[in-house]
Amino acid sequence: MATDLVPLPEISRLSPRCIRILGGNPGKFALQGTNTYLLGTGAQRLLIDTGEGKPSWIAAIKKTLEEEHATISSAIITHWHHDHLGGIGQLLETWPGTKIYKSQKREGPGQLDIVDGQKFEVEGATLTTYHTPGHTVDHMVLILSEEDAMFTGDNVLGQGTAVFEDLGTYLDSLSNMKHLFKGRAYPGHGPVIDDGPGKIAEYIQHRQQREEQVIQTLREENTGSETEDKISWTPMELVRVIYRDIRESLYPAAANGVLQILQKLQKEGKVVLHGDRWRLSDRSAL
């Protein structure tokens, strides 16, 4: 999540072959809105993601394609969240022949599965897909070979940090992503990241720092506990120590992240859960 958002125009040409069109859905988690991308230089273009189906988005897509004298041949969906696939219906109403590709596809008109390493090509743009679960189980990133760039979906954002379903899986995916390219990152939300691998390294380091903060706090006596057990903590008690400098309205989201860290540490045998309270499995070893 990010608070001070960089203003982004609705339509931006980011490179000779890449145009970003915002989904028209700004918000706390969508930031400036979902980024959707038109790729290619010829009459046929590839589309990455479809926003959540706002009228302004499909109008901007139409306007851009008219100016480009182009149409969409295929749309590739990075993951199942509504703010990335909600515009599929509008897309098919406007261009009925468009092929929709998604990992672990759901039943729907025109939807086709994506396999790891699959290639998509139009004039001026070649994409290769990679399965990178973590934010969601079906999450895909795409490498644009002409720019050695990556479309990172929601695993890496242009501002702030990402949420995830499983921290261990997410960190594995980040490690894999870092070695797939050397150039820009085009995120699912927020501005372009000039040093994509560098930003991914920052994400990994940030998560490692948060994990160490959780372990360090678990070592300490829990003076804020309302129980007699002062060596165990609830996720929210940990949040109130680790995230004491952020707004309380963000605590529930932070607690989910802390819970993910605790579950990862539990799998590694470093913490144990008693009821709703967590403690180190061996305080002397850690």
From TrEMBL:
Keywords: Hydrolase, Metal-binding, Zinc. Its cofactor is Zn(2+). The keyword Flavoprotein does not apply. Residues 33-189 form the Metallo-beta-lactamase domain. Belongs to the metallo-beta-lactamase superfamily. Glyoxalase II family. PANTHER family: ENDORIBONUCLEASE LACTB2. This is Metallo-beta-lactamase superfamily protein. It comes from Cercophora newfieldiana.
